Amino acid sequence: MLKVMNLSKKFQSGEHLVIAVNNVNFVVPDGVFAAIVGKSGSGKTSLLSLLGALDKPSNGEIFVGGENVSRMSDLHQIKYRRDKIGFVFQGYNLVPNLSAIKNVMLPLEFAGVGKLERQNRAQELLKKVGIDEIKSRRLPARLSGGEQQRVAIARALANKPDLVLADEPTGNLDSATGKIIIKLLKDLAKKEKTTIIAVTHDTAIADDADLRFTMKDGKLT
Amino acid sequence: MGSISRGFMNAFRNNIRTLSVVLILSVSIAMSLVMYESLKTVQAKIADVKSSIGNYVTVSPAGIRGFEGGGNLLTQDNVAKISQISGVSKTVSTLTDHLQSTTTNLVTPVEAGNFGRRQQQNSSSSSSNTSSSPDNSAGGQSSQTHSFSMPIMVSATSDLSSTQSLNMSQLNITSGEKFANDSSENIALLGTDIASKNNLAVGGTFTAYSQTIKVVGIFDGGNTFSNALIVMPLASLQTLSGQTGQINSVLVQTTSIDTMPQVSAAIKTELGSTADVTSSQDTSNEAITPLQNIKSISTYALFGSLIAGAIILFLTMVMIVRERRREIGVLKAIGASNFLVVSQFAVESLVLTLMSAIVGIIIGTALTNPILKVMATNSTSSASTNSMVGNPGQTHTAMMRAGAGIINGAGSAVRNLQATVGWQIILYGLLAAVVIAIFGSVIPSFIISKVRPAEVLRSE
Fold this sequence. Notes:
By secondary structure, chain A is an alpha/beta fold. Chain A is built from eight helices and ten strands. Chain B has two domains: about 5-55 and about 285-460, no CATH class; about 90-110 and about 150-250, no CATH class.
């Protein structure tokens, strides 16, 4: 379960104090697909950075699986990102000179999983997201956008995370492929009992979500 | 696949860039190796030249010019004063005289040659202008031309073990034995040539200064000039030649090559204008200058090449890190530690430098001796030009004759400098690669460690 309490993020931009996230509170149960919608600059990405321990909050606390993320040391945050979080980015962000399967194996390698186990797990995940064995040997550049995003989702799920954070996961895809990806995320959330938070400004995606939050000026409504 | 294999693979991610970097870096590593080998060779040669020249100061009567006479001879008092100077470890006194056909029954083994005939003509014209000359009564000009022979040189030293004092490279007794340094008997050592020319063996006698001199030993002096010499005890020659207590050269050995300038200065102060002081430091400097030039060039070029290599790698790695900033962020976001990411890039830079090292070793091995030869040729020609301009009269003194020989020998040795390129070059090449990789990767690694994974989201 994800629990966010009084979360704020402020930073100085020149002479102005910017409040990117302003006293946000929400709870997302396990296995739920939640969408956060909002316009550009509303604070969605800042909120996602805080949830993923990519940034430290100015105030408030984040609990993932009972652990207080906001009070973790840098070293613990690395471990947390590795073991508890999966990221899906808008631009896929696959390592270009590694094949699809090797990209999926990366988080497992960082977690110290043995080579054979890594390969089996990666192959299994790729199969789940619809990438066959032949395509799994291809470099990302030889896969379509939708296929690359599927590989990215498989990579996000590699370490069986408690929380998958997706930043505009369909932003670079056509609407049909986007719908397929969202359906895939929703199915995986249920099957893997993983909480998925997707940031998007596509209201159609948000409408399909189990939970929907709207962000405006750093506040969640 | 670990960070090591990823780093290895990344080194070949952009083949054109990899090739360019390897080529440029290999030139830098090759230059480092060439300069290191040159430096090593030159340092060994400098040590060799220094040890061959030795730490000697030569004191001669003021105005003496080699064997041409001039100046008042030095005395035992002068030698005693020199011995008291701090930094002097040993003094060896020598006296040299010439025996003419009128003062000895020995015949020189040295043919007059062109030089001798010129001396003869000078002597003839001078004697024809001097009617009172006793030599002139022996016959006309034509008979003098016929009877001219080279004088025989007699040398005496206070220490027979010091061959430098006799201007000889060696004194190997082939028969008989050496005499005691403090002997005052009428005894002598003969060079092999003069002994052979006069059918003399150990135990034989000859006449000089109207005295009978006994041959106690025959020696090989290493060359024709030395083998035509007679060597006698110092006290004996002083008495026989009527130069009691006098000497025409003192060879001063200093405690080290570094104290030579101070000892030279102290002797000049002590003896004033009565003596000319020549230090082998001067000779040493003349011989070593071209080597020092090469050493300086090699040292600067060695560090220059290493720094250039490090800068090339640094710029390459900075470019690569900037290009892959997003990828670094992704790796960190999905759980890679700073150490893992930095080590991946460190391996990449190490692979680039190791490949460069292999190419650099091949280039370095091929170019070491040609480049060393070019440096030696340039340094020798500039040094000899300076030497000729600065000291036109030096080659006339006895010491300087020897010194000039050493300089010429050193000059020849410099021109013929040959670096021995062995298997160690592989070790040095790898070492250069590691040094370049370390210095070239420090700042890029720091940049990597500062990349925040949140930047990946912000830059979407």
